[in-house]
Amino acid sequence: MTQDNPSHKKLLGVLIGGSGLIGGTLAHYFKTRTPDTIELRAPSSKKLSIRNSVDIKDYLKRVKPDFVINTAIANIGADSQLALEVNYIGALNLARAAAALKIPYIHISSAATLPNGENLTETDSLTIDPKLNNYAKSKLMAEETLRHMYNTVGLDYTCVRLAIVYGEHDHKTQGFHRLFFSIADESMPVMFTKKKIMHSYSNANKFPYFIHHILINRKEFSGQTYHFVDKHPVELADLILTIRSFLELKSPREIYVPYSMAKFGKKMLEFLLKGLSRIGINGGLPPELMFLESFYKTQTLSAQKLQDSSFVDPFPTETIYTKLPELVVYYLTRWTHENMISTFNEEVLGPDTMSHDFEQSPADLLESVHQDSTTPFTELRIP
Fold first, then answer.
1. Which CATH class is domain 11-340?
2. Separation between Cα atoms, residue 27 and residue 23, nearest integer Å
3. Where is each NAD-dependent epimerase/dehydratase domain found (predicted)?
4. Strands 67-70 and 105-110: what pairing?
5. Most buried residue, 90, 186, 302, 340, by most Cβ within 10 Å?
C-alpha cells in the first residue's frame, strides 16, 4: 500500500473498536471523506470478538482487508483477565493475522505506557512490572510484542500513542470528559492538583487525517511509533479554571488539595463503598481515580517526531482551548437530555427556539411545522 496506487484499487479496511470516541471518529471520517477510495468496515463484537482468535481469523479470511486498525480497549478499570484478553492477547492476534495476510496493522496505544516527565519521546517507556495497573501493563506488553513481530516476522505496523483525548461524540463519560463533567456538575469543590502540572492532549478531530496519511505512506511509517498530541502541553489547573469561567461557575474554588490528603480521601471513600456493598448498596469510584497521582505529576509527550514527518496538521490552530465552546455545547446538551446534569447556567448553550416552543407552545410549533416543513424532500423525487 503506497501513496502511488497505479491500479487505483479501492482499499478495504477493518476497524476494531468502532463504538468508542476514536473508533467512531475514524469510521465517520472514512465514510464521509473517502467513499470512493477507502472503505472501512467496523464489525460489532457479535460479528468479531477481539477476545476470540477464531472470530478474528474467520472474519479477516472472509473479508480479505487491505489493512486493520485496532482502537479497541478494555475499560481502564477492568480486571486483569479482561485487560489481558482485550488489550494484549486481542491486539496480538490481530497482529498475527495481519502478518499472515501481509497487510498493515495500525495499533492505537496510550501515554499510560510512559513514565511521568517532560518532553517524553517515542523511545521512552515504562518497564514491565507486576505493580503496574492492568491497563498500563497490557498496553505496554502489546507495544513490546509488536516491535518484536516487526523485527522477527516483518509485521508492517504503526503504533500511535495518544495522550488525554478530547473531542465530541464520546458516549462514555471518561478521561477528559469525566473532568469536564465533574466541573459542570459542580461536584469538584476544590482543585485536586497543584500549580504548573502539565499534560499533553490529543485532538480526536485531527486523528483520522493522520491515520489516512500513514495508510498511504507505509514506507515512512512502517515499524514506527508516533505520539499524536497537540504541539503545546496544557497546565491542568489553568484548564480547570478556564472551563469553570466558561461555564460561569464558582467552583471549584482555587484551593489546591495536597496529594497526600487527596489520596487519603480516596482510601476513605473506597472503605465506605466497601462497607455499603455489604448491605446491598453497590457503588464505585470513577476508574480514572487509579490515575490520581497523574493529577499531581507532569507528563508531556514530545510531538517533534510527528512534526518532522510528512504529515501536515489539517487544523494547526485548533487546541483544546479553541474547541471548548463546541465541547461545552455538545456535552451539556447531551448530559441534560440524559438527565445527568441540571445545575449549570442554561444561557451558556444559547437559545433554542424550537425546544422552547415544544415545551411552552406545542400547538403553535405544530402549526408552524405544518405551514413550513412538511413538503417532501424534492431531491429524493424519482423523475
1. alpha beta
2. 6
3. 15-174
4. parallel
5. 90
Q: Report how far apart, in Å, the C-alpha atoms of 63 and of each of 9, 15, 86, 310, 323 are.
A: 16, 12, 22, 31, 38
In angstroms, the CA 239 to CA 98 distance is 40
Task: Please list the pLDDT of the chain residue by residue as tens digits (383 residues).
Answer: 445 454 568 899 999 998 888 999 999 999 999 989 999 999 988 888 888 889 999 999 999 999 999 999 988 778 889 989 999 999 999 999 999 999 999 999 999 999 999 999 999 999 999 989 899 999 999 999 999 999 999 999 999 999 999 988 766 656 787 888 888 888 788 888 999 999 999 999 999 999 999 999 999 999 999 999 999 999 999 999 999 998 888 888 999 888 788 777 766 666 665 665 666 666 555 555 556 778 899 999 999 999 999 999 999 999 999 998 888 888 888 777 777 775 555 555 555 555 556 666 677 767 776 666 656 656 556 66
Give yes or no for a cis peptide into 376 (omega within 30° of 0). Answer: no
Give the whole-angstrom CA distance, residue 106 versus residue 109: 10
Angle at 186 between CA 181 and CA 192, to 5 degrees: 80
* Cα distance between residue 127 and residue 132, in whole Å: 9
d(CA 185, CA 182): 5
- Residues written for the chain: 383
**Cβ-based neighbours of 197, under 8 Å, separated by 6 or more:** 235, 236, 237, 295, 296, 297, 298
- What's the whole-model pTM score? 0.83
Ramachandran sector of residue 343 (left: φ over 0; alpha: ψ -120 to 50; beta: rest): alpha
| Closest-CA residue to 119 (of 317, 311, 304) | 304
Angle between helices 134-153 and 91-101 (to 10 degrees): 20
Looking up cell 427556539, which residue turns up?
A: 353
Contact 138, 88 (CB under 8 A): yes
DSSP string for 263-290? HHHHHHHHHHHHHHHTTT------GGGG
How far apart (Å, rounded) are the C-alpha atoms in residues 184 and 134? 30
C-alpha cell, 179: 473532568
